[in-house]
Amino acid sequence: MKRLPILATLVLLLSLLTSFAHANPAAININTADVATLVELNGIGPSKAEAIVAYREANGPFSSPEELAKVKGIGERTLEKNADLITVESAE
User: Fold this and answer.
1) Cα atoms in the Cβ-side hemisphere of radius 13 Å centred on 82
2) Does this entry carry the keyword DNA-binding (predicted)?
3) pTM > 0.70
């Protein structure tokens, strides 16, 4: 009988842990994100993240996520993989 409460507790803990594993990651605002944040995007390494920041500094804020394709090395496939992760908000 003493095993039942322990087993129930373990089942509860495992279900809580698996629910955290499926949580949606927060969207990344490409107008304010730094290099360390941008590398969290799929297919974006440090050099591409630096290129995004440099493009933003030279050309101003992005008006849409699709404008990210203007950055050298970033194509449609990268945009598709990150469609749910990218947001564009004012830098104010």
Assistant:
1) 25
2) yes
3) yes
